[in-house]
Design brief:
The protein is α+β, with helices and mostly antiparallel strands. It has 10 helices and 10 strands.
């Protein structure tokens, strides 16, 4: 069975950090900062057991076009945040910042503007994922819900792929099924998870090959954020019609449990 530290790190590398692209391209003020950028960014954690001596996710940015290479080490990164261990990386991204958890920052002198732009995205991501209440403006609500949907679908898949006992047991016994998250009136804000023969694949947007087996659907963005930020009760939201379970309720409880587990890994 994988350790809690290892699973947490996989959540950050494969589910949290890929949100950098979403935020950098969806927020106009941030997108503008990368319009003329040519840079390879990397976030890594040193580990003697890793094939390359570290675990990492890197991004290639060319004139505002982003390519995400999750859980892959780049040997030619221009800018890198290198943590001493997966434990310090996990602590840093959970908000436990201290001199002991700060990463070594490489490449700042050669590309200071690119470094500032990347840090601006990381700070925006941190503010979204650590929010305690829903923002008032719709655009930020849309971005926040989208990021949480992507995080949850990818996070559950990562727990399965990396040996989380409960999630892996569930996936191994599941027939070919698709679970989805959606908000009424916002088809662009959706995500899904396909489970088949023990394997899982997270997807962004609407699953178009067939009707999802189960969809956790919200009547509005504030209703979605009430559940995602744990400020509303799931049962009460269901009674009030804010949360609609398109499928058997027991599957909603099961997916809800996995959502909570992903949140625990990503936020502590």
């Amino acid at each position: 069975m994988a350790s809690e530290a290892f699973l947490t790190n996989k959540i950050f590398l494969n589910a949290v950090l890929p949100l950098v692209k979403v935020i950098a391209t969806d927020v106009p003020s941030l997108a503008k900062m990368f319009a003329k950028t040519h840079c390879i960014y990397q976030v890594s954690a040193l580990d003697a057991n890793a094939p390359c001596g570290k675990y990492a996710t890197h991004f290639t940015v060319n004139n505002g076009e982003w390519k995400v290479c999750a859980d892959k080490v780049a040997t030619n990164a221009h800018i890198e945040l290198e943590f001493k261990s997966i434990d310090t990386m996990n602590a840093f991204f959970k908000g436990k910042m201290s001199p002991a958890t700060l990463p070594k920052m490489k490449g700042i002198a050669k590309k200071p503007k690119d470094f500032v732009a990347f840090m601006a995205v990381l700070l925006k991501m941190s503010s979204l994922l650590s929010a305690k209440e829903a923002p008032e403006d719709e655009e930020t609500q849309k971005l926040m819900v989208k990021c949480f949907f992507y995080l949850l679908s990818s996070g559950i898949s990562q727990l399965n792929k990396n040996g989380h006992e409960e999630v892996h047991d569930w996936a191994s016994k599941s027939p070919d099924r698709v679970y989805a998250w959606a908000v009424d009136g916002y088809p662009e804000i959706s995500a899904y998870l396909r489970v088949k023969a023990g394997k899982t694949r997270a997807g962004r947007g609407t699953y178009k090959r067939a009707m999802p087996f189960f969809t956790m659907r919200f009547d509005s963005l504030p209703s979605a954020l009430g559940i995602l930020l744990s400020t509303d009760d799931m049962l009460e939201s269901t009674k009030q019609g804010k949360l609609i379970m398109d499928g058997a309720p027991e599957f909603g409880a099961q997916i809800g449990s996995f959502m909570i587990q992903v949140g625990a890994y990503a936020q502590g």
